[in-house]
Specification:
InterPro entries: LOB. With 159 residues, this protein is mostly helical. It has two domains: 75 residues, no CATH class; 78 residues. The chain is 75% helix and 0% strand. It contains six helices and no strands. The longest helix has 57 residues. The termini are far apart.
Length: 159
């Protein structure tokens, strides 16, 4: 590369950008702050060493990762990316516990609905039984003792 189109790394380091500059493809002159952030966290020699050790097809991803880590360190010098990851993991845990709570509330609601339906069916069956029972006792109104026994048995079996 010529000196007029030095990469952001070479410009930041105030050196001549050679034709085989390892940093040039990943730190273009249009974004000098990107290299400045990465340099602050990793250092120029470490960046160069890391990129040279990798196959060419993985270098772009490595430069992106270093850039993301450096930007995270600029926002949170203590935790960097780990702070963001921890926050996201805690958010996942909170949402999962809320989901469990909502599912249990939904199960309770569904059980209550089912119980109401069953009670409604029982109530209608009970009303039919009572009508049949009253109809059968109207023929013999003098047998009150028998009616009380039947009513008591009915209540024990249905309640």
């Amino acid at each position: 590369m010529s000196t007029s189109t030095r990469c952001a790394a070479c410009r930041f380091l105030r050196r001549r950008c050679r034709q085989d500059c390892v940093l040039a493809p990943y730190f273009p002159p249009t974004n000098p702050q990107r290299f400045a952030n990465v340099h602050k966290v990793f250092g120029a020699s470490k960046i160069t060493e890391l990129l040279k050790q990798l196959p060419v097809h993985l270098r772009y991803d490595a430069a992106e990762c270093m850039s993301i880590e450096a930007a995270s360190r600029a926002r949170d010098p203590v935790y960097g990316c780990v702070g963001v990851i921890s926050q996201l993991q805690q958010h996942i845990i909170d949402v999962q516990s809320e989901l469990v709570k909502i599912k249990s509330e939904l199960a309770v609601h569904n059980a209550q609905q089912q119980l109401q339906l069953e009670n409604g069916e029982r109530a209608s069956e009970q009303q039919q039984d009572e009508l049949l029972w009253l109809g059968s006792t109207q023929h013999d109104p003098l047998n009150l003792d028998q009616l009380l026994i039947q009513a008591n048995d009915y209540q024990k079996s249905h309640f």
